[in-house]
Amino acid sequence: MIDLYDLSIQELEDLFKKIGEPSYRAKQMFDWLYKGIQDISEVTVFSNELKDKLREIAYIGRLSVVKKQLSKDKETIKYLFKLKDKNVIESVVIKYRFGYTQCISTQVGCRMGCAFCASTVDGIERNLTSGEMVEQILAAQRDTGRKMSRVVLMGSGEPMDNYAEVLKFIRCINIERGLNIGQRHITVSTCGIVPGILKLAEEGLQVNLAVSLHAPNDEIRSQLMPINKKYGIKDVLQACKYYVLRTNRRVTFEYALIRGLNDSIHHAVELAKLLKEILCHVNLIPVNNVKDQFLRPSEERVNEFARALQIRGISTTVRRELGSDIKAACGQLRRSYVSGK
Fold it and tell me: Are 143 and 80 in contact (CB under 8 A)?
């Protein structure tokens, strides 16, 4: 059986052709899907006969909400969704003054093994399909009654490890018939999969690229991120320069500040030297306490680190803490649900 949310317009046209229907039916189906319908019976422009033909080969996927948590300030909502195969994934909706941003998952779990990330603790179960990514947005829009204006692929999973489905998802939500979310309002995050960055640079897209850097040198980064042993900082930054060259888009470097490990002024100076020739922005993230060995720096140290970058010409902000009271960091809610804790 085919989940209709997994199909592009072209693939829907092929499906309708297969059952002897004209191509305009595919466009109608696509329009209704992106209105957020949950059953084929809701497509009122289709005859009962056509609906029956569709049901024989396809269905409309639905995510069920297992758990929903609202932060105390009511600006962050965390969802735990159950998939058709009973796996669970997370998604977070954040209210900003400019609209609603949703952080979605691209995999069930993650294989990358980053030491401070809860998503990767139990490894990976499987990739999500493009339709399952779309359904996260539609489910949140149904629940909140709000349109998501920005999407960040920064939940559980490594987007570049599920490249084909992620690319298909981006194209589907970008087109006017889809969710009409502008490419510049879509951010793809990666821990530094160099071939994926280079490939994305050639797609002709204008999406934002966010790279998890988290260290100013290979020694520290390899402690935190096993992927660094395959793609070191030099290779990652070279790929980022190529991305900027091909897209003229600024790259964001995510940097989790960990007390006593990567948060000294010396580290800030080292980082500034690395990034000085790249069109970029640094997003400093005081670490969430996922494992006892990682401690959050003091607010004073965080601000000093930021200033050290800024005075050296590196655009830098400190991420506003959102949803800490509802385990909004990647993987925390899913892990507590799966482990029963």
Answer: no
For residues 66 and 324, what is the distance between their CA atoms, to the nearest angstrom? 19
Q: Nearest to residue 237, comparing CAs of 293, 198, 179, 289?
A: 198
CB atoms within 10 A of CB 86: 6
pTM above the 0.90 mark? Answer: yes
Q: Where in the sequence numbering do the catalytic residues fall?
A: 90, 330
Q: Give CA 314 to chain center in angstroms.
A: 25
pLDDT at 333: 54
Helix (H) or strand (E) holding 25: helix 24-33
Beta strand pairing status for 251-257 and 280-286? parallel
**pLDDT above 90 coverage of the chain, percent:** 87
Nearest Cα to 19, choosing from 43, 48, 70, 54?
A: 54
Q: What is the pLDDT of residues 47-62, one digit of tens each?
A: 999 999 999 999 998 8
319 HSE (CA, 13 A, CB side) = 20
Q: Residue holding tokens 């990034």? A: 275
236-295: pLDDT as tens digits:
999 999 999 999 999 999 999 999 999 999 999 999 999 999 999 999 999 976 556 789
Residue 135 near residue 174 (C-beta atoms within 8 A) = no
